[in-house]
Design brief:
The complex is a heterodimer of chains A (77) and B (205).
Chain A (H helix, E strand, L loop, with lengths): L10 E3 L1 H7 L5 H8 L3 H8 L7 H10 L4 H4 E3 L4
Antiparallel strand pairs in A: 1-2
Helix pairs in contact in A: 2-3
Chain B lengths: L1 H18 L9 H24 L7 H25 L13 H19 L8 H31 L2 H4 L4 H30 L10
Helix pairs in contact in B: 1-2, 1-3, 2-4, 3-4, 3-7, 5-7
The chains are: A mainly alpha (77), B mainly alpha (205).
Chain lengths: 77, 205
């Protein structure tokens, strides 16, 4: 997937659900915790952006989860 | 994507109109162009602040790209028409000095940049990825434009070549750099538009 462009097989994630499960964490708070912009959190949550491995690991750390518990690839039908 | 082309063509057109003699105010075209950029920055700041409430305002890098595209398009449109006008002169101390007007517009652009400057702005890997992709597109555009111009210089008939003075060649090369920059900014903004979700209002908790 080219960053910033839509993909036919996007990397999906559980960020929104995990945010709410972690004290209704705001997008702004998550962005600050991992050093990205709120706009990137929005792009991630809507599967419009595939994060780097480093960023994926940072986000997983915030939620005390494994990377594969946060990010997964949608299986094609 | 429509907004990118609308803003791009709007500012290119405004610059061209100002160079073509359309100036409703009794001041130099440079002041009108500079004021246009400052007003656009004020309107953009108000618009982006209103979008901040719903959480779909652009980031600092995207705002910067909008401003750079608008400013470059205005000056590019202006200088293009000046260059295409027979007998025009940019570097003159009196009269229709396109150079002075261009620099005045640039000063307006700097004021606009100051209005939109955010000290706490951060950019991240998504910004860098979109910027890297846009730079590739801009570089490709620069190479294509240079090849077209070099081909024209090499094969243009002699009567046409008499118009290509050193001054005109230098300014045309400058125009090519500005056009490539416009392609880069447009590609950058299209990159942001593609990675922006169909925003659900109220979803940003």
């Amino acid at each position: 997937m080219i960053p910033g462009t839509p993909s036919t097989q996007p990397i999906e994630n559980q960020i929104r659900r995990l945010r709410f499960e972690h004290g209704e964490m705001t997008q702004e708070a998550l962005a600050k915790a991992v050093g990205i912009t709120r706009q990137t959190v929005i792009a991630l949550e809507s599967s419009r952006y595939a994060p780097s491995l480093e960023l994926a690991m940072k986000i997983a750390e915030v939620f005390s989860a494994r990377v594969d518990e946060v990010f997964y690839r949608r299986k094609s039908a | 994507m429509f907004r990118v082309f609308a803003v791009l063509s709007g500012f290119l057109g405004a610059g061209a109109l100002l160079a073509g003699g359309w100036n409703p105010l009794p001041v130099r075209s440079g002041y009108v162009g500079g004021a246009l950029l400052v007003i656009a920055a004020v309107v953009a700041r108000w618009y982006w602040r209103s979008r901040q409430v719903s959480g779909d305002d652009p980031g600092a890098a995207e705002r910067h790209a909008w401003l750079c595209m608008a400013g470059t398009a205005l000056i590019c449109g202006f200088v293009s028409v000046v260059l295409m006008t027979p007998g025009s002169e940019i570097h003159r101390s009196v009269g229709d000095t396109g150079g002075l007007d261009s620099w005045t517009m640039l000063a307006g652009g700097l004021i606009a940049w100051g209005l939109l400057y955010d000290r706490d702005a951060v950019s991240d890997e998504r910004d860098r990825a979109i910027d890297a992709h846009a730079q590739k597109v801009g570089y490709a555009a620069l190479v294509v434009l240079l090849l077209v111009f070099l081909f024209a210089l090499g094969f243009a008939p002699k009567p046409t070549m008499t118009r290509f003075t050193h001054w005109l060649i230098a300014n045309t090369l400058l125009q090519i750099i500005m056009l490539a920059a416009l392609v880069q900014y447009a590609a950058q903004l299209i990159g942001y538009a593609r990675s922006a979700p169909q925003f659900e209002h109220g979803a940003n908790a």
